[in-house]
Amino acid sequence: MKRHRIIWSSLLAATCAGALLLCAGLLECSPIVHAESASRITAFPSSTQPDQVCLTWSGDLRTTQTIQWRTSPKVKKGIVHFRERSSQTNEYVEKNAGMSEVEDPGTSNDPVNNRFTAVLDDLKPATTYAYRVGSKKGWSEWAEFTTAPQTVAPFSFIYMGDPQVGLDTWGRLLHSAYERHPEAAFYVVAGDNVNRGGSRNEWDNLFHAASGVFDHRPYVPAIGNHDCKDDGPRLYLDLLTLPDNGPKEIGPERAYRLDYGNALVLVLDSNLSKEAQRPWLEQQLQSTKATWKFAVYHHPAYSSAPKRDNGDVREQWGSLFDQYHVDMALQGHDHGYLRTKPMRAGKEVASPAEGTVYVVSVSGTKHYDVEQHDYAAKAIDHLSTYQVIDIQTGNENKLTYRAYDMDGKLQDELIIVK
Question: Where are the domains of the chain?
Fold first, then answer.
């Protein structure tokens, strides 16, 4: 369980360490504090009532569930009550949460929060649980989560590109996805979760917008360059408890692996050295028996925006995607929509059986122009979307990928059969 106290007098040391990493080519988002972040006001200050209730994973998806939330410093203890939703009684199990104190003097009207994290374990696979969080000072509403299946079974999940800007509008898109596709098991976000990662008021906006969704379905984020603004990804790492099974070379929770049903999801940190993550990435791809393989990261291997290119992503990671046949790479950063043709070694191939499909999307309101490339199968500019990836099992293994806009209009579709 994490327990930490953020001491801002240590920022100088963190900045120096970041500079050393930057010189070593390991860090693009260095922890440099900017003057404009010195004083801010959050629209959603903490109180004794628990809020920002959010599901993530940090253990076995079939038998554990991680839950985090926050309160004001007046609350010193956090508890989870949970039971199987199908239970015929009102009896519940009680689990104590660990507490961490998060200080941010720059958020002038709410500089200190207490953050609580509980990992529920010994759960039953493929089972829906009802839960609430809080203490004698106040309780959340009852919400629910469902554990991953023990064996291969059909499932779907949502993928979104950068929220970053316009988080109230992004929240409406998120809720649109949840209302239209309640069966989706989890939500992948490919980085730039907020615009300035060192500004806690922006994370407050994100969690407020996600209320009613991320407390029912796990949040699976990647780190974007904007999540590192001002202070590195300090708040990203402090506010979220994620799997600690990634490459040791880059530090815990910056990259990680999830296994859900017959799918492998590898979340990478494209802000850091791609080469440093390559051995871990290859090991995961070598060892998996998953039918479907997904990579999630921020900076695209095939860009949609003009004058952008990330050749190191193609060289270090794309070559492994080719060798071990990653089905789809889910990306962000370029603030447009692009789905490539199946690609292998930088060239179009005849079918998804021979190459990887790379997708760029944006879910917030910040949009860039989209450049038409030979590798594009579908390109759309100035449109916020969410994507549903549906995996069917049985006589044939089928993946159905669909992109939708705010109104639920289908914008793109791809079917892959194995």
Answer: 155-417
In this structure, are residues 152 and 127 in contact, taking their beta carbons and an 8 Å threshold?
Answer: no
**Cα 263 to the center of its chain, rounded Å:** 16
Cα 10–Cα 12–Cα 13 angle in degrees, nearest 5: 70
- The H or E element spanning position 287 is helix 274-287
Q: Are 115 and 20 in contact (CB under 8 A)?
A: no
**Reported pTM:** 0.92
E-state strands within 58-120: 65-71, 79-84, 93-96, 98-103, 112-120
- Within 13 Å of residue 336, how many CA atoms lie on the same side as its CB? 21
Give the Å distances, CA to CA, from 340 to 147, 331, 347, 398: 33, 12, 11, 19
Q: Are 148 and 126 in contact (CB under 8 A)?
A: yes
What DSSP designation does 52 have? E
368 neighbors 391 (Cβ within 8 angstroms): no
For the chain, what percentages of helix, strand and coil (3-state, to nearest 5) are there? Answer: 20, 30, 50
User: How far apart, in whole angstroms, are the C-alpha atoms of residue 225 and residue 397?
Assistant: 35
Q: Whole-angstrom Cα distance, residue 369 to residue 162?
A: 15
Rg, Å, the chain Cα set: 21
CA–CA–CA angle 109, 110, 115 (5° rounding): 170
Quick: pLDDT tens for 320-339: 999 999 999 999 999 999 99
pLDDT digits (tens, 9 = 90+) for 336-391: 999 999 999 999 999 999 999 999 999 999 999 999 899 999 999 999 999 999 99
DSSP codes, 155-192: EEEEEE-B--S-HHHHHHHHHHHHHH-TT---EEE-S-
Q: At 329, which helix (H) or strand (E)?
A: strand 328-331
Instruction: Give 109-165 pLDDT, tens digit per residue.
Output: 999 999 999 999 999 999 999 999 999 999 999 999 999 999 999 999 999 999 999
Distance CA 194, CA 399 (A): 30
Distance in angstroms (rounded) separating the CA atoms of residues 187 and 160 = 8
Calculate the alpha carbon distances from 94 to 38, 121, 166 in Å.
40, 12, 38
Report which of 17, 413, 33 is spatially closest to residue 235, judged by C-alpha positions: 33
Coil/strand/helix, residue 338 = strand
Distance from C-alpha of 375 to C-alpha of 214, rounded to nearest angstrom: 34
Q: What CATH class has 155-417?
A: alpha beta
